[in-house]
Amino acid sequence: MIESELLTMAYPPLLVFAAAILVLLLPRAVGFTFGALSLAAVLAISLVVPEGSYLTGTFLGHFQVVPFFVDPFSRFVGIALGLLGVCTVIYAYSSGASRTFTAIALSYVASSIGAAFAGDWLVLVFMWELMAITSTVVVWYYGGDAVRAGYRYALLHGTGGVLVMFAVAAHYVATGTFVYDLSAGLADGLPQLLAMLGMGVNVAFIGLHYWLPDTYPRPSFVASAFLAAYTTKTSAFILYRAFPDDGHLFLAYMGGLMSIYGATFALLQHDMRALLSYHIQAQLGYIVAGIGIGTSIATAGAIGHLFNNILFKSLLFMAVGVVIYRTGENDLYELGGLWREMPLTAIAFGLGAFSITAIPGFNGYVSKGMLFDAADPHYFGAPEYEALYWLLYIGAIGTLLSFIKLGYYVFFHGESDIEVPDAKPGQVIAMFGLGGACLLFGVWWQGFADLMPVIEESTHTFMANGAEKHLHPYSPSHRRTAATLTAISLVAFVIVRKPLSKLEFTDPGSVIYPVGYYLGRWSMLATTNLYAAVDRFAVAFVKRWYWVGNNPVLAVDAAVRRLPMVDVAERQPADGGRPSTIHLRAGIGTTVLLLTVALTIVIWLLV
Amino acid sequence: MSSVDLLLPLLVAVPMLLSTVPIALGLRFDRTGWSVAALTTTALVAATTTLANVVYTDGVVTHKLGGWSPAYGIELVLDEFSALIAVLVAVTAAGVLAYTRVGGPRGNTFYSGYLLLTGGLLGISVTGDVFNLFVFLEIVGLATYAMIASGDGPESAVAALKYLILGTVGASMYLIGVGLIFMATGTLNMGVLAEVLPAAVERDPTLVRAGFAFVFVGFSMKVAQWPLHTWQPDAYQHAPDGVTPVIAALVSTAYAYAFGRLLYSVFGPEFLTSTPYLTELVVTVGCVSVVAGSALAVIQTDVKRMFAFSSVSQFGLIVAAYGLVTESAFIGATIHLVGHAVIKAGLFAAAGLIAINYDARTVDEYAGLADEHPIVAGTMALLLVSLIGIPPSAGFVGKWYIALGAVEAQLWPVAVVILFSTLLTLAYSARLLEKMYFTPATPLEAPHVSESVATDGGENEDDAETAAGADAANDGDAGARGGTDTAALEAITANRDRNTVSYGMLALVVATALLAISLGFAGGFLADLLDPSFITEVFN
C-alpha cells in the first residue's frame, strides 16, 4: 500500500526529464543507462500504479488540475511509450547519437508522456505545446535541410497548438472545468470544432498532413525513430480524450480516407523514410476511424492499434535507419539484395512489415481485425459505416503493396552491389525487442487483450449491440480476410511494379506551405499598411488639433472661409507670426450681467 | 482632552491677531514679516494636526464661542471633512513660505495680509455658523484682493479690482441666500439648520429654494464656475508669483469646501435630491465648467493663465461631483479638493520659479526647459501627470471616485464628461510637456549668455584668439586688467546669485510633486478618513 502510494508521487514525465538532464551531465554510457532506466520506470509505473488522479492541485487559485491521471487508457498508452522509449534509447546509444541530442529527445519523450498522463486540459495544453517545441528542437538539431523543414513544422504545430488552446478555453467557458470529462470529452460546438482542427494537425488529417513527409525524412535516422511514435500517437490518444463518445461520422470517414491517402502516396515514394511517414498517416487513419466510430470494439481496436503502431512503426523506422546508417542511401531504388548483407536487419524489418500489414501472428493483425469488425456492418458496424469498411479494406491493400515494394526493393531485387556490415548489437537488441513484442502480442493475443482497455480482462468480452461478445481474432473469417488481402496485394504488386517505378506525383497537400507563406506575407503586409494608415491618420488628426489649439483665430478664419456666402477678408498678420489667440475677456459689467442671468435661470428653475 | 476644543478659536484668532505684529514691528525692523509668518504657520500646522488627530480618533470637536447656546451664538466645529481642509490650509500656508522667502513678494505688509488670509481660511474651515462663514469669506476675499494688488504693474491692480467687485457681488449673493434661509428657519447655526430645514421646506419651499439659488450662484462665482469665472484668470495671472500658489491652492478650495459643507451639512442630500432640477442644475454647471475650462486652457499662451483655466475645469469636476449626491462622488470630490490643491500649489510655484529665474512665462518660452533645468522640468512633468490623473497619483484617485459615483448614479453623460476631462487635461498638459521635452530651446537665449562670458576676459574658446591678441597689446598693464577681471567676476557671481533657484523654492516644488504622487497611493486612506463616520452621518 505504501509502495503504491509512493508510486503515485513518481510523476513519469519528471523522471524522464530528470534523466534528460543526467544524460547531459554524466558520461555517455552512464547517462544513457539512466535514460533507459527512467523509461523502464515509466513502463513499470504504468503497469502497477493503481488507477486514480494524483498530484492534483489548483492552478492560479481556482483552476483544478490533474497532472497525473491513471485509467486503463493512459496506463495502456504509458506501457507502450515506456517500452518504446527503452528500445529507442538503446538504439540511439548504439547508433552514436550525441548526449545533447539524446537529452533533447528525452525531454520530447517526457512531454509526450506528460500529455498521455494528463488528467485535465490545462496540463494537456502545456504538454502539447512543450511537445511541439521539443520536437522542433529534435528536428533542428540535425541542421542543414532539417532547419527549414523544422521551421515549417514549428509554424504548423504552433498554429495547431493555439487552436487546441482556444478549444480548451472555449470548453472551459462552456463547462466551467478543465478536468477531463471521460464520457463526453470536449463540449459540443465550438470547442469540438477547434479541437478537430488543432489536433487534426498533429494526427495528420488530409490537408493538414504535409508536415509529416516533409519533416520526418530530413533529420538523422535516430531522430526519425524518436519522432515516428511520440507526437502522432500521443495526439491520437488525446483525440480520443476529446471525442470519447461514439458516432463522429466526420472523424470516422476522415480516418478511412487518411488510410487510403497515406497508403497511396506511400506507394509513390522513393525515399524510404518518406514512405514510412505516409504510412504514419495511413495507420493514424485506422486509429482515427476507430475513435470516430466510438463503439466499445472500435475504441478498443483504435487504442490497441495505437499501441501496436507505436511498436511496429518505430521498429520500421529503426530498420530503415540501420540501412541508411550502413549504406548512406535514402532512395529505395538505389538499393537491393541487402538481405544477404544485413540479414538481422532484414528480419527485424520483416517483423515490422508483417505487423503493419496485418499478417496473422503479428499484433497488427489483431487490432486491425478489431477495427474491420467495428466498421463492418455484418459484424458490429452500423450501416453508415459500410463505405468506411471498404475504405479501410482498400487502405490495407495499399499498405501491403507499399511494404511489399519497400521490402522488395531494399532487401531483394537482385544482388547488392555494395558490401555493408549488419546492424550493431545495440540496434539489434532494440529492434528485436520491439519486433519480439509485436510477435508476442500477435501470437499471445490474450495477454494483449488483458492489457487493453474496454475489453474485459481474462474473459475477453466486450459489449456490442447490447449483447456481450467475445474477442475472436483468429476466427476463420478473419484469417480468410487476411489471406484475401495478401493475395490481392501480391498479384497487384506484380502488375503495378513496373509502371509504379516511373510514376512521380507531388502530394497536393504540399500546397499548404506556399499557401501559408503567401497568406502570411499578405496578411502581414496588410496589417502593417493598415497600422501605418491608422498611424498617419492619428498623427495628422492630433497635429491638426494641436494647430487649432495654438492658432484658434486662424482656425476659426479657415472654418468660416469654407462656409458658403461668407466673405472673409484676407488676414494681414502684423504680429511677426506669433500664434494668434482669441481675446475673450469679459469685463466686470459683463460678468455681473452674466451673474444676473444665471441667478434668474436658477431661481426660475428651482422655485 | 477636555480643553482641546480651546485650540479651535485659537486657530482663527492667533493668525489674525499676529497679522498686526509684522506691521507693528515694521516700525522698527525691516524684515520681520517672514519670521513671524513662519512661526505662526508652523504653530498652526502643529495645532491643526493635533486637532485632526483628535477628530479622527475621538470624533468631532466643537467649541461654543463665549459659551453661548449654538442656537444664538457662534459655534466652531471640526469634523472629519473640515479637519482635512484645515490641515491642508495650515500645511500649504507654511509650505509656500519656503517659496516667498527668496521668491518674494517681500515686506511686512505682505506677511500681514498672508496671516490674515490664513486666519480667514482656517475660519472658513472650522466655522459652524452660516453668517460667520460669510464673515470669513469676506476676510479671505479682502486679504486676497490686497495680495493680488501687491503685484507689479497696472494689470495687478485691475485684476484685483475686478476680483474685488465680482468677489464681493458673489459673497453678497451668498449673504442674501443666508438671509432668506434665516427668514425661513430663524437660525444661523449649521447643525440646528440641518435639523429645522426639512420642516421649513414643508412650510415654505419657495423661501428655502430661493435661498439655495442665491447661495449656489454666489458660490458659483466664488468657486469660479463658467461663465462666472472671469475674475479668476486675471487674478491668478497677475498676482505676484509667490501669491498665486496660495490663492490657487487654498482660496478656491476653501470656497469649494464651504459650498460642499452647505450642500451636505446644511441642506442635506434629502433636500438636494427631492428638489426638482436641483441636482441636474449643479451637475450641468459643473460639467459645462469642466469642458469650457479645459477648452479655454488649451488655447492659452501664458502658462499661469492656462493653469488658472485648468482650475476652472477641475473645480467644475468637484461641483459636478457634489451634484451627483452619492457617497463615492462625495469622497471623490473631497480627495480631488485636497489633491488638486497640492498639485496646483506645486504647479504655480513651479511656474513662478521658472518665470522669476528663467524668465519664461509663455508656453513657447518653455521650449527646451528639460535640457537646461531637468529637476524643475521633471517636477513639473510629474505634477502635470498627476493633474491628468494617470495612476498612481492624487488626480487619479479623485477622478476615479467621482467617475464611480457617476456610474453609481447612472448618470452616463457625467461619467463621459469626467473621462473626457482627462483627455482635455491631457491636451493642455501635453502642450507644455511637448514644449519642455521635445522642442529645442530657441537660439534667442544665446546672445545673453555669450555677452556675460565676453566681459569675463575671454574664457570662451571662440574668444581665445582675440584674447591672445589683446594680451600682447595690453602686456604692460596686466595688473589693471586683473583688477577689472575680478570685478567682472564678482558682478557675474552676484548676478548668478540673484538668478539662482533657492533651495526653499525647489524644495516646495519637489515636495508637492512627491506629495501628489504619494496621495495617489494614500487615496484609500483619505477615503477611510471620511468614510465610516462622516459619510454615514451625512447620507443616512
Automatic annotation (TrEMBL), chain A:
Pfam families given in the database record: Proton_antipo_M (PF00361)
Topology of the protein relative to the lipid bilayer: Multi-pass membrane protein
InterPro entries: ComplexI-like_HydComp, ND/Mrp_TM
Protein name as catalogued: Monovalent cation/H+ antiporter subunit D
Keyword Transport found: no
UniProt organism field: Natrialba taiwanensis DSM 12281
UniProt keyword Oxidoreductase present: yes
Keyword list, A-Z: Cell membrane, Membrane, Oxidoreductase, Transmembrane, Transmembrane helix
Transmembrane segments: 6-25, 32-53, 73-93, 100-119, 125-142, 154-173, 193-212, 221-243, 249-268, 280-300, 346-367, 387-408, 428-445, 586-606
Highest taxon listed in the record's lineage: Archaea
Subcellular location: Cell membrane
Known EC number: 1.6.5.3
Domain NADH:quinone oxidoreductase/Mrp antiporter transmembrane: 118-374
Molecular functions (GO terms): oxidoreductase activity
GO cellular component entries: plasma membrane
From TrEMBL, chain B:
Subcellular location field: Cell membrane
Protein name: NADH/ubiquinone/plastoquinone
GO BP of this protein: ATP synthesis coupled electron transport
A molecular-function term among this protein's GO annotations: NADH dehydrogenase (ubiquinone) activity
InterPro entries: CPA3_Na-H_Antiporter_D (IPR050586), NADH_UbQ_OxRdtase (IPR003918), ND/Mrp_TM (IPR001750)
Ranges for region Disordered: 452-481
Broad class of the protein's primary localization: membrane
NADH:quinone oxidoreductase/Mrp antiporter transmembrane domain location: 128-425
Database matches in PANTHER family: NA(+)_H(+) ANTIPORTER SUBUNIT D1, NADH DEHYDROGENASE
Organism the protein comes from: Natrialba taiwanensis DSM 12281
Residue ranges crossing the lipid bilayer per the database entry: 6-27, 34-56, 76-98, 110-127, 133-151, 163-186, 206-224, 245-264, 276-299, 306-325, 331-354, 375-397, 409-428, 505-527
Record membrane topology: Multi-pass membrane protein
Biased composition (Low complexity): 466-481
